[in-house]
């Protein structure tokens, strides 16, 4: 007895087809038969709807996604990607700002004066040594330019100010130096020493030599070297103080066998002014200016003496 309908007939292979064609055809039919069943499995609850007209609970996270939910899903994904792109751009900008503030190397420029190559290398070396010993100050916002100036002045007292600025190139900065302008000169043991209005003594002059030259009449040879810086500093302060009073110093001399007294000659004044280094230069200059104005048009003494406080003598 034949049981038709209960048993399926096995499909007979088509005659004339090679085995390779038969295997590929069978695999294709199997995959096509299982694809629609991939979403419909046993013991699985299907949520959502594939219809654009039917809305369901938790539509965006459902198993079946409608075209509207698909659009929302893509929109949310684009939003996340856009936020990640903004975060990357911000990070790159922060890194750029940090790197652009690093001082890896500097170039030296001297303002309002010209220096030789040896002096420029000396300034460059001092700056490099400071940055090597203060590595955290290579970050420009943390650079202490006052400490840098004090460090340079230890070897180069002629530097009066410094300005470090970024050039806009990665790791490069420019250092602008301003040098002191001398008001008096003194030749000590064959070497010239200079002094500015603030009384700072230095040996390297980038400007023309000043017209005021200190004449040493002292016969004690050893005193010249010992007292040079003290006298030079005092002379510079006197020249600056008298300049504020409207008088120009033309000559300064140290009298014979003295170590604390100076004789100052002022332009258009026929007598000398005796001063001492033991009293402040500004006070003596003010007293000298008062005496000069008092004696103007009256008499012409040989000298005036302002070494004593609150008193002035003339002869």
What average pLDDT do the residues reach?
78
Please state roughly what percent of the residues sit in beta strands, choosing from under 5%, 5-15%, 15-25%, 25-35%, 35-45% or over 45%.
Answer: 15-25%
Query: Helicity, in percent?
Result: 25-40%
Task: State the end-to-end CA separation.
Answer: 163 Å
* SS elements, strand count: 12
Order of the strands making up the biggest sheet: 7-8-9-10-11-12
Largest sheet: 6 strands, mixed
| Structure classification | alpha/beta
> Whole-number radius of gyration?
47 Å
Q: Count of DSSP helices?
A: 7
SSE order = HHEHHEEEEEEHHEEEHEE
- How does the overall form come out from the CA principal axes? elongated
Low-confidence stretches: 1-11, 28-38, 223-227
Question: If you had to describe this structure to a student in words, what would you say it looks like?
Answer:
This protein is α/β, with parallel strands linked by helices. The protein is built from seven helices and twelve strands. Strand 9 and strand 10 (272-276) form a beta hairpin. The longest helix is centred in the N-terminal third of the chain and has 34 residues, at 67-100. Mean pLDDT is 78; it is low at 1-11, 28-38 and 223-227.
